[in-house]
């Protein structure tokens, strides 16, 4: 399983990359494999305020509908319109072009590193 070392991870299978107070958020390859083919994304809008740990959207796949949690709180500053228009990109490139949204955050919660995330998912496989 592909788990980049430079990201932080949540137990809900989101990843974060933080730079200059802005966190880019996506879902992990483990999540995309579990969900199957993603067909629809409901993401927060630019200007929305999200709270860490709270539901901020939905991901619909051919298997199910899953809630999307905000891994960090703050103001949404960008949404990946390409992923909304072509949600399959989340399956094919979850850590690159398949990112979901960016949030300006003053505080990043404690996250799992890659090794801890692998240990978590090994128990779920």
From TrEMBL:
One of its GO terms (biological process) is protein lipoylation. GO terms for cellular component: cytosol; glycine cleavage complex. InterPro entries: 2-oxoA_DH_lipoyl-BS, Biotin_lipoyl, GCV_H, GCV_H/Fam206, GCV_H_sub, Single_hybrid_motif. The keyword Transcription does not apply. Keywords: Lipoyl. Residues 22-104 form the Lipoyl-binding domain. The modification N6-lipoyllysine is found at residue 63. Pfam families: GCV_H. CDD domains: GCS_H. Binds 1 lipoyl cofactor covalently. Its cofactor is (R)-lipoate. Belongs to the GcvH family. The glycine cleavage system is composed of four proteins: P, T, L and H. The glycine cleavage system catalyzes the degradation of glycine. The H protein shuttles the methylamine group of glycine from the P protein to the T protein. This is Glycine cleavage system H protein. It comes from Amycolatopsis arida.
């Amino acid at each position: 399983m592909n788990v980049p070392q430079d990201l932080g991870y949540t137990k809900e299978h989101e990843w974060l990359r933080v730079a200059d107070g802005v966190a880019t958020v996506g879902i992990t390859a483990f999540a995309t494999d579990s969900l199957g083919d993603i067909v629809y994304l409901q993401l927060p809008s630019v200007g929305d305020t999200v709270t860490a740990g709270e539901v901020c959207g939905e991901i619909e796949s051919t298997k199910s509908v899953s809630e999307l949690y905000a891994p960090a709180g703050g103001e949404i500053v960008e949404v990946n319109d390409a992923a909304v228009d072509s949600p399959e990109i989340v399956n094919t490139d979850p850590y690159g072009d398949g990112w979901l949204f960016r949030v300006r955050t003053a505080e990043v919660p404690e996250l799992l590193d890659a090794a801890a995330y692998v240990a978590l998912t090994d128990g779920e496989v």
